[in-house]
Write a structure and sequence with these properties.
This protein is α/β, with parallel strands linked by helices. About 40% of the residues lie in helices and about 20% in strands. Strands 8-5-1-2-3-13 form a six-stranded mixed beta sheet. Strands 4-10-9-6-7 form a five-stranded mixed beta sheet. A two-stranded parallel ribbon has the order 11-14. The protein is elongated.
Length: about 350
């Protein structure tokens, strides 16, 4: 019997170890932050889970101890009918939870202030943290990818990107560069990126797990977000809020490149034939399922397009999605499919 229990425990331990090996895989985006903002959010999450996990373990252990100690039939424990109060118990019951809540509140507020996209000082702080430990972190994680991470002599100028969500694609506008893309976000490494986000249809969530946390993107409103990517590479971005039949394919590629490659990419996009006017955007905003996640480039963007989209949505502009959502979406619905 004991041998069987030992084998069962051994198999359980092996299964747990096999499961934990997946934590090192690339698909576990949240546990592999590649930027200062994402790393701050991840550290706060770890702290919250660790503290609350400790509270749960201690509370559960005490429950087990009390159940065993004061079980029926345990004659070694006596009943004291004169007991009314205990200062030690009062301190433990009220003091410990207050300390835990205060501790978590302090670090939660600190994390919120450190990642607040509406506070320019938060981005400066993130950039300073990135400069202090970004390259050392990258060298430990992957020495082969540090060639593009030479320390900058001065703080780079922020890159501004306007983001518009549709059903079910992402439009990225670079106002200063005068270009735009669909389902492709390219940013330079170790550079503050400031986003203005809005939706032309329904509420979506902008989320790049390895670089920046999720934030709501709402129709007719302007939302801000910011991030800094500490390492070059390709990262997966997507919407984290269900928005209809094409939601599963509503992803975009986030490429973080060195500054020279970013400038080269901008020149290549400026050579594209297509231009993004509001009329062209209206065709893009029609319900579209980009199955292959094909990327589109636009060499010129209508001035003020982002604000114009917000104004049109507030005026009642709707890009209607057919209501008959069935498993075979290509026949009964007037939805464009990009394969």
């Amino acid at each position: 019997m004991a041998l069987r229990k030992g084998r069962a425990l051994g198999r359980l331990g092996a299964a747990l170890l096999l499961f934990l090996t997946g934590c090192a895989q690339k698909a576990y985006w949240l546990v592999h932050p590649k930027g200062a903002i994402a790393r701050t959010e991840w550290h706060t999450t770890v702290l919250d889970v660790a503290v609350m996990g400790g509270v749960v373990l201690v509370a559960g252990g005490l429950v087990a101890v009390f159940l065993w100690r004061y079980r029926v039939g345990n004659r070694s424990r006596t009943y004291d009918p004169t007991f009314t109060a205990s200062l030690v118990i009062e301190i433990l019951v009220w003091g410990v939870p207050l300390l835990v809540v205060g501790y978590l509140s302090y670090f939660s507020v600190k994390s919120v202030l450190a990642t607040n996209p509406y506070d320019p000082l938060a981005m400066r702080g993130a950039l300073a943290r990135q400069g202090r430990n970004g390259e050392a972190f990258a060298r430990r994680a992957d020495p082969a990818m540090t060639s593009a991470l030479a320390p900058a002599m001065r703080a780079p100028r922020p890159l501004r990107v306007e983001v518009i969500t549709t059903d079910w694609q992402w439009v990225f506008i670079y106002p200063k560069e005068g270009i735009a893309t669909v389902d492709e976000l390219v940013v330079p490494v170790r550079t503050p990126v400031k986003f203005d986000l809005t939706s032309a249809t329904v509420v979506n969530d902008f989320f790049i797990p390895e670089l920046v946390g999720e934030i709501d993107v709402m129709p007719g409103m302007r939302t801000k977000q910011a991030m800094i990517a500490g390492r070059t590479g390709v990262y997966h971005g997507y919407s984290d809020d269900y928005s209809g039949g094409g939601f599963s394919w509503m992803g975009f590629s986030t490429r973080v490149v060195d500054h020279a490659r970013f400038e080269k990419w901008v020149r290549r996009v400026r050579a594209a034939r297509d231009q993004l006017s509001f009329a062209r955007f209206s065709r893009i905003a029609r319900p579209t399922i980009n199955l292959a996640q094909r990327v589109s480039h636009f060499s010129e963007v209508q001035k003020g397009l982002f604000d114009h989209v917000i104004g049109r949505v507030m005026a009642g502009r709707v890009y209607r999605t057919p209501l008959a959502m069935t498993e075979n979406m290509t026949k009964p619905m007037n939805v464009r499919m990009i394969k």
